[in-house]
Amino acid sequence: MHRRSLLALALAALATPAMADWTDTLQAARGQTVYWNAWGGDQRTNDFIRWVGQQTEERFGVEVVHVKLTDTAEAVTRVLSEKSAGRTEGGSVDLIWINGPNFLSMKEQDLLHGPFAGDLPNARFLDLSEGAPAALDFTTPVDGMESAWRLARFVFIRDADRVPEPPVDMAGFVDWAAANPGRMTHPDPANFMGATFLKQALLELAPDPRALKAPVTDAAYAAQTAPLWDWYDALRPNLWRGGEAFPENESVQQQLLADGEIDIAMSFDPAAAAAQVEQGLLPETARVFVPDAGSIGNVSFVAIPFNAANREGAEVVADFLLAPETQARMQNIEVLGSFSVLDPERLDAEAQARFEALPTAPALPTLAELGPTLPEPHASWMTRLTEDWADRHTR
Amino acid sequence: MSLAARFLPALILTAILLPIGAGLWQTALAAAGHLPAIGAQGPDLAAWAALWDRPGLGRAVWLSLFTGIGATLLSFLLALASAMAITRKGRGGRLLAPLLAMPHAALAIGLAFVMAPSGWIARAVAPVLGWDRPPDIASIGDPFGLSLIAGLTVKEFPFLLLMMLTACAQIPLRRHLRAGRALGASEARLWLAIILPQIWPLMRLPVLVVLAYSMSVVDVALILGPSNPPTLAVLLARDYADPDLTRLMSGSAGSLLQLALVGAAAGAGLLIRRPVARLGGAWVHAGAPAPGAGIALRALRGAACVAMTLGFGAMVALVIWSLAWRWAFPDLVPQELSLRIWARSVQGWAAPLANTLIMAGASTALALLAAIAWLESETRSNRRLPWAEAAIFVPLLLPQIGFLFGVNTAALRAGLSPGMWLVIWGHAIFVFPYTMIALADPWRAVDPRHFRAGAALGAGPWRRLFALRLPILLRPILTAAAIGIAVSVAQYLPTLFLGAGRTPSLTTEAVTLAASSDRRVTAVVATIQAALPLMGFAAAFVIPAILHRNRRDLRGA
After folding, report:
1. Labelling B121: which of A324, A383, B160, B398 has CA 20 to 30 A away?
2. Same domain, residue pair B214 and B362
3. Residue in chain B lying closest to A65 (CA)
4. B29 to each of A16, B61, B248, how far by Cα in Å?
């Protein structure tokens, strides 16, 4: 028996204050129920969240209830209405799947608990140095107020039978739509996927893409978006329903693709096509593609509201999401197919082997096929772009 | 007892009107620019200015008026044409029950399956027209809201028809029709000149309820309505879910606008009675000529048949989609049927099903108790309270989007956590008026000699209630319960806003899933959602038949 050496090890571990805090956190978390507010539009993500809850309950005694949102802003509003009612503790939201403008909004309104993300034990597998992807959210510094959990890449989905040669850049969509009128569309830009479609075009068409990294100004906006709107005006008349109506989100758009109403859809999940083929939703010929110059990528985070009733439990869940084992399962195409946020260089051999052993599928792109990852513009650009689009194109 | 009898109605009314009043107050505060949580101290007009600047606001307002009034008018006309046919033939009314029981969201989801460019209708004509892919036609979500009007009409005309048949039973319909026919008047003239003026006072409230609902509905409009811009109610629901938190204030201002719109439309509907009565009088004096009315009636009856067919088609489509594996255009039936989706999604719908059962059971029980208490106190004090009876219907006449966000804030201020209890309270507020509609007339119609006989035999008021009245009224009580369950199951906004998302019901789940990529899972949830109220109505039919199998006069029709 090595009881003594184990004890010594435990004491050594406890000697660092962070670990001692974490032991306290684990203790406080036991028996808590974490209300995780997360977008509920994707069955595989919902299944994955359920699996996470089963694991945390088994390992740490932390139950997870998935509060399914149609839009993340619902949870932001909920926390806000609690703050406005003076409820500074015992709030109803413990953990939120968040990024971009929602994060910026909560951070600016002091609606978040933290910083906590850097203190999570599994944060040691992340590259959190300044400017690293897991430390920036739409160019806004995370500052430990949210913790990364999955990587998103913007991709297009096509039916290879109907779209044998997809456009190689955003400009090419104008010609494709002219040759195939009514056969493509994009989600309403009020939805993040519709906004991302515009941002993807903006990154390619802006005269000076570097300007997009800074908060938007009137002058910069006018200069950088002028080519975008020319491009869009050429594209729109040939969109589905003459560019007068748009699907609410990318799920509805994928349903249109499955119904054969359109031939091109979009997703933030490179495994989306493979997953939907496997579920019988899309034909075997569905494939993903990205523009040759690459596509927008961003990191999904989880954040804890300032008044969360089960803060410790929420931290335990956030930490569990970063465990190499969890991340490898998440990247498995048969489970979720979302790329890991961990820094491969910080993983030990055993963890690396887990990632290397993951299965592949014909509709699943390789990393090489996905091309380079383009950074998100500053969140203020997205807000401005969405509002401007609504002004221009709402009847 | 007389003291309790006096205070019970006041207590019930407080439970109904207090949250609504508090909700309206919070909404008004936010609309006036006072929302301290985001640092807005108001009062100012910023919220109204922001609302005014919303792209598409004018069109959204126009859409709400057009679809709301259009659906109400069309439903009323279809109900009238059907009522004429049903009262003449004396059958056909039974077909209404499934459509009445069907929750709005489930019906809308089913209708979307039927009417979409890739839906059943398009698939049926695809071989004829040579379509190998769905046409690019806006047959749902069209910019004018016509598909929304169609969807609302399919659901609302059976309700108005039921109310109309009830109203017809309260006037000497047969005698008037016989007399009129003997004078050689056409059916259309008889109904317009003689029957309609008599039943209108009884139809006013149901029509206003349908109007308020149709103008401000969110779930059906999300599924079938236009999107760019949507109707005002959907625009506001989006505001309440926007990352830009100042939108909460412009949304609140919009809620007040929605209230004003419904008020204006209802007011216009009531005021128009006067000129109509005057013109109608002149028209009757002129011999009530009704050229073309016969053709119009036949067209309306045809439209009612189409609406019924669409409704039943929607139900069947739901069930088939829930059993499909892959069902590509233009196949009329799926390539492969399977129970996999039912099995796979069970973990997704088990908890919402349990929540729905709890909400429906508890809110219906509360509402029934309140209705029985209300009517019994009326019986014992032997007086009716017309104003109080009107106030019961306030929740049905106000647009829900107008006050529910405020109710949530008010509840938090009062230290109540959003969650199951608040949702049950919210549901009960909307269930109670319907249980009163279902129970009040049968209650008052029971032959008082039963109770005099009971009293003569020494039975006190409680024994008369439990041993005589309630057993006699078993069938109407169960019918009221079934209606209550149907109303509760269908609630969308109250479940969403008062439950803080922690109490997903089959309805909130179905509406969320309607915007997801897997129609099969949506169909499973919507099928279960539609099955629950149907089972309630079936139980209300079967239980008295069994319990009263040896009591001929209590078995009822």
Report:
1. B160
2. no
3. B502
4. 51, 22, 11
**Range 451-510 of B in CB contact (< 8 A) with A:** 500-502, 504, 509
Number of domains in chain B: 2
Is residue A236 less than 8 Å (CB to CB) from chain B? no
Q: How many C-beta neighbours within 10 Å does residue B30 have? A: 28
Percent helix, strand, coil in chain B (nearest 5)?
75, 0, 25
Nearest to B345 by CA among B106, B105, B509, B503: B509
Residue B421 and residue B384 share a domain:
yes
Residues B391 and B288 in one domain: no
Answer yes or no: do B274 and B378 share one domain: no
Which of A92, A383, A395 has its CB closest to that of B59?
A: A395
User: Facing residues of A136 across strands?
Assistant: A141
Residue B556's SS3 state is: coil
Interface of B with A in 409-448 (CB under 8 A): 409, 412-413, 417-419
**For residue A360, pLDDT beyond 90:** no
Q: Sorting pLDDT into bands at 50, 70 and 90, what band is A95?
A: very high
Where do the structural domains in chain A lie, given as residue ranges? Answer: 3-151+300-363, 155-297+371-393
**CATH superfamily of this structure's domain A155-297+371-393:** Periplasmic binding protein-like II (3.40.190.10)
Nearest-CA neighbor of A93 among A123, A107, A73? A73
User: What is the rounded average pLDDT of the residues A18-46?
Assistant: 88
> Which of A177-186, A210-219, B492-501 is predicted least confidently?
B492-501
Are the CB atoms for A18 and A249 separated by under 8 Å?
A: no
A138: region left, alpha or beta (phi > 0 left; psi from -120 to 50 alpha): left
Higher pLDDT, B557 or B397: B397
| Overall residue count recorded for chain B in this entry | 557
DSSP of B346-360, one letter per residue? HHHHHHHHHHHHHHH
| Model confidence at B557: pLDDT above 50 | no
Contact between chains at B515 and A240 (C-beta distance less than 8 A): no
In a domain, B65, yes or no: yes
Contacts of B93 by beta carbon, 8 Å cutoff, 6+ apart: B86, B162, B165
Nearest by CB to B243, from A84, A105, A244: name it. A105
CATH code at B113? 1.10.3720.10
- The answer to whether residue B138 neighbours chain A at the CB level (below 8 Å) is yes
CA distance A21 to chain B (A): 30
Of residues B213 and A15, the one with the higher pLDDT is: B213
Residues of chain A neighbouring B500 (CB-CB closer than 8 A) = 78, 92-93
Question: pLDDT digit string (tens) for B243-277?
Answer: 777 888 999 999 999 999 999 999 998 888 888 88
Q: pLDDT digits over B21-50, tens only? A: 999 999 999 999 988 777 788 788 999 999
Q: Is residue B38 part of a domain?
A: no
Residues B250, B371 within the same domain: no
Question: B332 and B350 share a domain?
Answer: no
- Cβ B37–A281 below 8 Å, yes or no? no
Q: Which CATH architecture has domain A3-151+300-363?
A: 3-Layer(aba) Sandwich (3.40)
Contacts of B203 (CB under 8 A, 6+ apart): B76, B160, B163, B164, B167
Residue B190 within any structural domain of the chain: yes
Q: Which residues form the domain of B100?
A: 44-338
Provide ipTM, 2 decimals. 0.83
Whether A248 has its CB under 8 Å from any CB of chain B: the answer is yes
Residue A98 burial class via C-beta count within 10 angstroms: exposed 0-12, middle 13-18, buried 19 and up? buried
Write down which residue in B303, B338, B373 finishes a domain: B338
Q: Which residues of A touch B404 (CB under 8 A)?
A: none
What pTM was estimated for this model as a whole? 0.85
Instruction: Give the single-character DSSP code of A358.
Output: -
The CA distance from A241 to A254, in Å, is: 16
10 Å CB burial of residue B358 (0-12, 13-18, 19+) is middle
